[in-house]
Description:
This protein is mainly α and 239 residues long. It contains six helices and four strands, in the order H-H-H-H-H-E-E-E-E-H. The strands form two sheets. Strands 1-2 form a two-stranded antiparallel ribbon. The chain is elongated. The N and C termini lie far apart (68 Å). The relative contact order is 0.15.
Amino acid sequence: MPKLPSMPSMPKSSQPAPSGGMPGMSKGTIIGLVATLVIMMVVMQFRNEIGQGLNFVFGPLIGFGGQWPVLSLVVAGLIMITLSTVIRSFFTDSVSQAKNQKIQSEFNKEMRQARAENNLYKLKKLQEEQPKMMAKSMETSTQMMKVMPITMVVVIPIYAWVWYFLANEVPPATETLDLLKIAVPWGTLHLQDTLWVLPMWIVIYTMISLPIGQLENRIVRYFLLKKRLKELDGIEYKS
């Protein structure tokens, strides 16, 4: 009976890492998470006072006398997303981040192709390079987590203002009119109702903020990346 060819052994780098500690969590990531949790707890503890203080600014600007709470919610979402996007963009290296994303995308493409073709030699070589790719991905995540506490200083207080505004500045409901009731494609809902544990206004707030945030993030990153590339080109030309 002919001897079957042996399968190539898996490289040591692809074997599971020993357990212990917090795998995949760098020191910077842990510090960012802890700082974010501290900010959230402080704001939640004093959300009424913080919301009342911010109402002196946001109330006259986007409160609209409490007559259009949904519009106030939309504008607050725009402000929050714009500020957090600008802060993140100025505190991250857009060129390095774009390079890492490109390298990671090409690596994943090669990995899928090697698996589809059952190219064991190529797959082994790619698996040997996988720890380097994971390190690059971790570096990007660490940069984002370091910036997160700064963005939370902006984001969480705005949430506190929206909570205060809806609870105190919107006129009370009458038999014929409730300004906190809105029509949505699947029916009618009340902004103070809850979905599981989340107030409905947070759900609507998030649905408004996420797509706008993605768009703004791409626009800001495009202009900052373009500016940074021009600066690098100038340095290279002078040298």
